[in-house]
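Input (structure):
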């Protein structure tokens, strides 16, 4: 039984290395099975699979920590699928979570990707993305998104990879309640919080300060700034 399981999973790991960036995969799988294992190697895959069989939760935690700490992933909001993590090191949170799920599946570790569609604001300071240097898109302090995805792993719970592998906390989200124009300025409402679309010159796309709002010529047509993605 174990031999069949190992052969099937080894094929999945081999396929991963055949399709995606080997350097990124080595970073994600670093420390699983033995120190210094690299490349699309059968012996390395078997050691990784044995480790995953013996303690799936611990191996899943290593994969998640490696993604957060060793892969320089940049959130752009672009939908690139699993290649966002495994080939490009950039994209949206769905591609980040799906890439993680694919690696865990190759190790025969179950997980699911879950998500929320709909604008929301996180009105808390100090929250940093997986790429710590990225500036929050509201006032350079807060974050807003048009959707969000995370990975759920048995024994580990709901893991928010975009926010550096933290436990998902939807209780701090303020959901979108409306939007409109005020003297040519676009606003978005999240409960008691209101944000305004800027022209981006401040280094962020949205501000809670109406004096930083972009004033548009409504007769010239609207700009595509009705969501909270980075364009």
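Output (sequence):
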């Amino acid at each position: 039984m174990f031999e069949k399981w190992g052969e099937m999973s080894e094929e999945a790991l081999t396929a991963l290395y055949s399709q995606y960036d080997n350097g990124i995969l080595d970073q994600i799988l670093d420390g699983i099975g033995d120190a210094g294992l690299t490349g699309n190697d059968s012996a390395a895959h078997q050691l990784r699979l044995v480790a995953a069989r013996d303690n799936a939760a611990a191996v899943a935690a290593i994969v998640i920590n490696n993604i957060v700490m060793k892969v320089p992933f940049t959130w752009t909001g672009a939908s690139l699928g699993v290649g966002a993590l495994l080939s490009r090191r950039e994209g949206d949170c769905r591609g980040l979570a799906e890439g993680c799920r694919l690696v865990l599946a190759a190790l025969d570790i179950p997980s699911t990707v879950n998500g929320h569609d709909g604008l929301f604001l996180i009105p808390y300071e100090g929250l940093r993305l997986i790429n710590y240097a990225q500036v929050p898109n509201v006032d350079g302090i807060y974050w807003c998104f048009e959707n969000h995805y995370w990975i759920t792993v048995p024994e580990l719970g709901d893991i928010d990879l975009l926010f550096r592998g933290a436990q998902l906390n939807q209780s701090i989200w303020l959901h979108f309640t409306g939007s409109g124009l005020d003297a040519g300025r676009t606003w978005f409402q999240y409960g008691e919080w209101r944000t305004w679309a800027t022209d981006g010159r401040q280094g962020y796309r949205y501000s809670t300060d109406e004096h930083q709002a972009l004033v548009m010529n409504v007769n010239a047509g609207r700009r595509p700034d009705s969501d909270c993605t980075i364009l």
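Notes: The beta strands are 74-75, 90-91, 112-122, 143-153, 157-160, 166-167, 174-182, 185-190, 193-197, 206-207. The chain is about 30% helix and 25% strand.
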